[in-house]
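Quick one, C-alpha cells below. Sequence please?
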C-alpha cells in the first residue's frame, strides 16, 4: 500500500461527512480566498473525492466571482478618485513661486515607497506582455484578485480585465484540476 493512500482516504472520509450539495459550495468559497484561489481549491476538491469537473467549475466560479467583485469595487474607487482629483485640480489656483511671500508654506516633498517584489514582477509582465500576459502570468507573481485590482487601478477597462482574468482563472484551474486528478489516478493509484 502506498503511504499516501491512507491520508487521501482519511481526507475523503472527512469530506464524505459534508452533504454532497454543500461540497462544491465549500470549494467555491475556498476558490474566492486569495492565495488559495481556483488552483488549490480544485486540488482540495479532487483529493476530497469530488468529481474533477465539478471541483474545477466550483473553484473557478468562486475565484471569478471574487475577482468580479474586486474589479467592480476597484473600478468605482478609481472613478471616484479621479473625479475628486479633477475637482480639486479645477479649484486649485496655481501659485507662481516668485509671488509667494516669505510666510507661504512650502509643499512638503512626498516620500515614495518602493514596490514589493511581486508588484515589480507584475509590472514587468504588464509592460512586456500587456493585459493578456499580465493576467495569464500574474498568478505566478501574486493572486488574481491583486492582479485584477492593479490592472483596474492602472486604468485598464473593466470588461478587458474581467475577460482576461476569466481566461487565466479557467486555464490555471484546469491545469490544477488535471494535475490533481492525474496525481491521484496515475501516481498514487487512488480513484
Amino acid at each position: 500500500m502506498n503511504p499516501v493512500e491512507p491520508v487521501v482516504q482519511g481526507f475523503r472520509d472527512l469530506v464524505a461527512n459534508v452533504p454532497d450539495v454543500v461540497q462544491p459550495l465549500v470549494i467555491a468559497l475556498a476558490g474566492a480566498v486569495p492565495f488559495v484561489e481556483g488552483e488549490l481549491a480544485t486540488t482540495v476538491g479532487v483529493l476530497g473525492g469530488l468529481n474533477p469537473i465539478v471541483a474545477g467549475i466550483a473553484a473557478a466560479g468562486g475565484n471569478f466571482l471574487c475577482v468580479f467583485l474586486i474589479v467592480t469595487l476597484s473600478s468605482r474607487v478609481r472613478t471616484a478618485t479621479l473625479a475628486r482629483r479633477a475637482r480639486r485640480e479645477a479649484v486649485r489656483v496655481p501659485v507662481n513661486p516668485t509671488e509667494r511671500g516669505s510666510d507661504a508654506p512650502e509643499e512638503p516633498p512626498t516620500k515614495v515607497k518602493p514596490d514589493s517584489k511581486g508588484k515589480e514582477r507584475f509590472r514587468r509582465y504588464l509592460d512586456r506582455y500587456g493585459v493578456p500576459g499580465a493576467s495569464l502570468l500574474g498568478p505566478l507573481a501574486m493572486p488574481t484578485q491583486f492582479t485584477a485590482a492593479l490592472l483596474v487601478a492602472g486604468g485598464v477597462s473593466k470588461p478587458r480585465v474581467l475577460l482576461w482574468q476569466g481566461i487565466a482563472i479557467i486555464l490555471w484551474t484546469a491545469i490544477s484540476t488535471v494535475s490533481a486528478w492525474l496525481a491521484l489516478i496515475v501516481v498514487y493509484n487512488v480513484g
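Helices lie at 4-16, 22-31, 37-47, 52-91, 117-137, 144-153, 158-187. The chain has one domain: 4-91+114-187.
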